Amino acid sequence: MKIIKIGDGYYCCTDEKIVISKLFKDCCIKNKVKKGSFAAQFLNKLLIYLFQYAIDLEEEYKTYYSEYKSFTAYLHEKKLLNSMEIEQLLNAGKNYIYYLQVDLSNSDIKTLLEYDDKELVNINRMLE
C-alpha cells in the first residue's frame, strides 16, 4: 500500500480492498503498537481520517462512468489526470487505486499531509 500525492489530491494504490479495521490490525502488528495504547488510538483515528471517504476509482468507473472507452480514458477525461500522473498510478503495480477525500474527513489530516512531505513518507512507511 502506498499513498501518492498528485497535484492537490492524494491517491492510495493497494493490493486489496481497503477495510479500515483490517488495516488497523495489520498496522498494529507491523508497527508493534500495543492494544489500547495512545499510539493505537492515534493510529486508528489517522486511518479513519485517511480512508473513511476513499473512492475505489475502478469500481466508480465500472458502476457510473462506463461510457468512457477505458479506465485510463476515465482517469484522463473525468478525473483530469495527465498521462504521466495516470502512468504513475498504474505503474504502482497494485490492484486497486483509491482517491482519498481527506478534505471531507478532518482538516487536521490535510494540514498534516501538506505541512511537510516527510509526513507522507512516514505514513507510507507505516502502511508498507
Walk me through the structure.
This protein is 56% helix and 14% strand. It has 128 residues and is of the alpha+beta class. The chain has a four-stranded antiparallel beta sheet.
| Mean pLDDT across all amino acids | 93
First-to-last CA distance:
6 Å
Shape: globular
> Can you list the strand order of the major beta sheet?
1-2-4-3
Count every helix, treating DSSP H or I runs of 4 or more residues as helices. 8
Report on the biggest sheet.
4 strands, antiparallel
* Estimated radius of gyration: 15 Å
Q: Which ranges are low-confidence, i.e. pLDDT below 50, for 5 or more consecutive residues?
A: none
Query: From N to C, what is the helix and strand string?
Result: EEHHEHHHEHHH
Task: Give helix % range.
Answer: 55-70%
Query: What structural class do helix, strand and pairing data support?
Result: alpha+beta
Number of strands: 4
Percent of residues in beta strands?
Answer: 5-15%
Structure described in brief:
This protein is α+β, with helices and mostly antiparallel strands and 128 residues long. It contains 8 helices and 4 strands, in the order ββααβαααβααα.
List the helices and strands and how they pair.
Layout: E1 2-6, E2 9-14, H1 20-30, H2 38-51, E3 55-56, H3 57-64, H4 71-77, H5 83-90, E4 96-100, H6 102-105, H7 107-115, H8 117-127
Helix pairs in contact: 1-2
